[in-house]
Structures are given as structure tokens and as C-alpha cells.
Specification:
single chain; elongated; Alpha-Beta Plaits; 5-stranded mixed β-sheet
């Protein structure tokens, strides 16, 4: 199975998710959720993490984690491993409860962390489990909004500091900010290569790492070709059929686009793309 790139460095911020095997529940009841939060708190303390937001659903969870010490993977092994042991012991079940490895999206803090923290706590509302975020006990919303006491494992200073230096004012503005996000589009539209959410300058910081790994076939295709140009850019100049065929060849061979992706973009038949690549390949021998 393809393994996603793990980019770890001091101060990195991630949106982390993990799901149950075959979409099965990872929390059977509130006691399971309490156990998970206890384990999460211990991991945050042990590995010096900052948790900016979280939400526990039935068959998955969301975390917004900042790692001052570049140690996400080792901490996640501890979190999921210890929780699995507790869950299996309590429910007399063997084996894994999570579906494969956890998923971690590297996030540009200044531009996307706040928006993603809103996305995370609105999960139960979007799923139509509750009408308002404060009705879901198992997220960071109520603590950040000042409705309940903030647990030791949750960091709220950064988020609230964006709204006001006065805590009560910041909490009021935060509550308004969350409500305004209920009907907004998902921030994932700007996700690149299934692994990074940030502006163009943010990608440049990881160019060498991503380029070095572009040949590793075990890494999912979208991540291997994270820095490839868009199809729109590749086919910007195609005044003749010859130019179009050359662009098709480069899109597939150099940049890894699938034949179907190219065909759908150009609105031509799949076999036309295949024949164009074959002709270009033959002409270059």
C-alpha cells in the first residue's frame, strides 16, 4: 500500500485524522472518548505538543497539532497504540481498530490554522449530529469559546490571541467566527498533493525534499508529483495538433498525469491520448 510522505520539522502544524477499520467505530461510548482524551493528554505532555483543536466522532477523530520538536510520527504511534490497547482490553477485542496509518496534512500556520480549527469543531454540525457546535461535548469548541474550563492538553492562546488581547472579547469573537463558518466552503479545495495546505511560498520550503522523493513509487502518485504544473499550464500553448501531442506526452511521461485525467481535461477520447503518446514515444526513439 502506498505510504504518504511524512514531513517533520520543529514547529510544524498538522491536521491529523485516523479512522476505524472498515469505517467501524473507534468510540463505542463516552467512556471510550474519555479514555482517548486521557491518552491524548499524556502524549501531548510527553512529546511537548500543542493541540489547537480536536473533535472526536464515532468512527474517526480530528486533531490540529503543532510539534515544536519535530516528533509527530512517534507521538502518533504512542497515541493510537495505547488507545488501541485500552479499547481492546475494555471491549475484549483483538487486533487493530484503526484503518492503516494516520493521515497528516502539513498546514501553513499563519494562513490556514485558524480556518482548519473552525472546520474541525464544525464536524458534528456538518454531519447533522447536532445543530450547534456547543451541543457536541467531544470537541475543543466549548473550551475555546469559554463555555467550559480549558483542559490542560488544549492550547487556546494562539487562536484567541487572533481576536483580541482581552480573553472574554476574544471568546465572544471566536464564537461568532465559528457560527459564520457553518455554511462556508471546505478549506480542502486548496490542498496540494494530499499532503500540504499552504500558499505557494510555503511549498518552496519543501521543494528539495519533495523532488528527491518524486521517484519513490511507494509514495502515492499525487504526492510524488506534488510540484508538477497544472494541466491548464501545460496546455496553455497548443496552437497545432503537433503541439497538443507534445504537451500530452509531457503531461503523462514527465509529470505523471493519468491518461484519463488528460482526456477529461482536453475533452477528447481516452484512446486519442494513448495514440498521441505512442506516436510521440516512437518519434523520440
Amino acid at each position: 500500500m502506498a505510504r504518504p510522505i511524512r514531513i517533520e520539522y520543529p514547529g510544524a502544524v498538522y491536521h491529523v485524522t485516523a479512522r476505524g477499520n472498515a469505517r467501524d467505530k473507534i468510540f463505542s461510548d463516552d467512556q471510550d472518548r474519555e479514555h482517548f482524551l486521557a491518552v491524548l493528554g499524556a502524549v501531548i505532555k510527553r512529546y511537548n505538543w500543542l493541540c489547537h483543536a480536536y473533535c472526536l466522532m464515532d468512527n474517526h477523530y480530528h486533531l490540529m497539532i503543532e510539534t515544536p520538536d519535530a516528533n509527530l510520527s512517534i507521538g502518533m504511534r504512542q497515541l493510537n497504540g495505547v488507545y488501541t490497547q485500552k479499547y481492546n482490553r475494555r471491549h475484549s477485542k483483538p487486533g487493530h481498530i484503526f484503518q492503516g496509518r494516520f493521515k497528516a496534512i502539513l498546514v501553513q500556520k499563519e494562513n490556514y490554522l485558524l480556518e482548519l480549527c473552525r472546520y474541525v469543531v464544525l464536524n458534528p454540525v456538518r454531519a447533522k449530529i447536532v445543530e450547534k457546535p456547543e451541543a457536541w461535548r467531544w470537541s475543543s469548541y466549548c473550551a475555546t469559546a469559554g463555555i467550559i474550563r480549558t483542559p490542560a492538553y488544549l492550547s487556546t492562546d494562539w487562536i484567541l490571541g487572533l481576536f483580541s488581547s482581552k480573553k472574554e472579547t476574544a471568546q465572544k469573537e471566536y464564537r461568532l467566527f465559528i457560527r459564520e463558518g457553518i455554511h462556508r466552503a471546505s478549506p480542502w479545495d486548496e490542498l496540494q498533493g494530499q499532503v500540504i495546505l499552504g500558499e505557494e511560498g510555503f511549498f518552496e520550503e519543501f521543494k528539495n525534499l519533495l523532488d528527491d522523493k518524486s521517484h519513490v513509487t511507494e509514495i502515492p502518485r499525487p504526492q510524488r508529483y506534488l510540484r508538477r504544473p497544472s494541466l491548464e499550464k501545460i496546455f496553455k500553448e497548443q496552437k497545432t495538433k503537433t503541439q497538443r501531442n507534445e504537451n500530452i506526452y509531457h503531461a503523462h511521461i514527465a509529470h505523471g498525469y493519468l491518461l484519463k485525467e488528460i482526456a477529461d481535461y482536453l475533452k477528447i477520447h481516452y484512446t486519442t491520448v494513448s495514440k498521441a503518446i505512442a506516436r510521440e514515444t516512437e518519434g523520440r526513439k
